[in-house]
Fold:
Amino acid sequence: MKAHDGMYIDGAWRPAAGRDTIAVVNPADEQVIAEVPAGGAEDVDAAVRAARAALPAWAATAPAERAARIAALRDVLVARKDEIAETVTAELGAPLPFSQAVHAGVPILVAGSYAELAASYAFEEKVGNSTVYAEPVGVVGAITPWNYPLHQIVAKVAPALAAGCTIVLKPAEDTPLTAQLFAEAVHEAGVPAGAFNLVTGLGPVAGQALAEHEGVDLVSFTGSTAVGRKIGATAGAAVKRVALELGGKSANVILPSADLAKAVGVGVANVMGNSGQTCSAWTRMLVHTSQYDEAVALAAEAAAKYGDRIGPLVNAKQHARVRGYIEKGVAEGARLGAGGPDAPREQGYFVSPTVFADVTPEMTVAQEEIFGPVVSLIRYEDEDDALRIANGTVYGLAGAVWAGDEAEAVAFARRMDTGQVDINGGRFNPLAPFGGYKQSGVGRELGSHGLAEYLQTKSLQF
Ligand code: NAD
Structure:
């Protein structure tokens, strides 16, 4: 695969300060497909300086001009969507149709939504005898994970640019090629030099240098709760803005009045898509005790249908981790309805779509984020029991409720401690705020709420 051997800083590809590299591996066949530079503090410093130098001019551009650049960026993503999908498939392993529809498709929607929002957002309002201005926060340090490599970049860069901020991006080490492609797209879209900068590198080296850099005004991080906690502490000590999009262990609550077959089928598909590597996946399926056995049979059937269509996990470490969780589920007394810990293929980091039955709320597989194609079916006795189980983890990112009557589902959803709930299989909305309650994070992405994260307010009194 094509790779740049430098960093995208101040509008050009520049050699890295050091000689270290990161090997990019195709998780479907374990072959090295490219190498990219592993940046360090010096590269991060150069990128932050470029972003700071570009800030005054970019912050002063009219919103319509910023909207035009983001619209141009969306158009480049559209023109290069096949290349994007192929790149994501090569370094993440997602099956090509999923990469085309989701990994390439969703960022186009999100970039489009910010082109519109940049043009229409009220950056100025009158409040009594005051005028309140929404001004850019400044230089953004964006740190992203590998599981939706382009979406997570666009969900930070598009609103930051729309707000008038400038950015340094440190993408995940497993998926740097998608990030390099994105930098090419930013360049082609005519975004001014320095407004967007890319430093590839390791988390504890380049990521940490970015989070700690004095020239960064806001750190926007998506990734694990463990790293997020550290980044939050660093930002707090520096009195710096921080946004954290972290892990999840979401509940799919099927009330007795729901269409069981549909709720189970959509629920299993929700977990298996992207091989279970979705922070908002509904990995706990809550079923009334009277329908439990039927739900287990339906889930096992739905998982078995996935069979070979599921992609590998991203790397050897995740492969071992997810198989370890499946073994732990068995050891703690959960029953396998489908799948299991054995690797289904000799080559590639594959795990079989796995359904666990007889899972109790306190088991490890019901509490910890597995980040693999594993769904756990948990019984509940009544609605209060279901709510207690649904809210009974440290996370609160997403969830689903199914009921015969929409109002019944809404009433339940309002009692859930979580940031997003899909009602009877509700569709993705790129404008809906996305983010966590509890340890799933701080702040929101997408739509106008996502834009507001990159703004600070100033009031003038008259
Ligand atoms: P991770 O936390 O290991 O890495 C995420 C990013 O942080 C990477 O770019 C990595 O290089 C960097 N990083 C690692 N250590 C760092 C450090 N000490 N300082 C600064 N940066 C550092 O997470 P991951 O394994 O790449 O991603 C999976 C996790 O991300 C899951 O827990 C998942 O739920 C979460 N996630 C959350 C959301 C959300 O929106 N809430 C979305 C996707 C993924």
